[in-house]
Write a structure and sequence with these properties.
The protein is mostly helical. Helix content is about 80%, strand content about 0%. It has one domain.
């Protein structure tokens, strides 16, 4: 749960997502079972040049 919160916070800070978008991402991220996948998504959130790039990474995992 801590990693999910960290990823959502990163998306808020980096891409300015609103509360509704944050909740939608939180719901999707909470369905990711493998810690390794969440770690990969955390890195993707850090490195993505646009929100769409992060969404593609999330689509590949979930």
């Amino acid at each position: 749960a801590g990693l999910v919160k960290a990823i959502v916070t990163l998306l808020r800070v980096r891409f300015g997502i609103d509360e509704a978008e944050a909740e939608a991402f939180r719901a999707r991220l909470e369905k990711v079972e493998a810690v390794e996948d969440l770690e990969d998504l955390h890195i993707a959130a850090l490195q993505a040049d646009a929100l769409e790039a992060f969404e593609r990474a999330l689509d590949e995992i979930s």
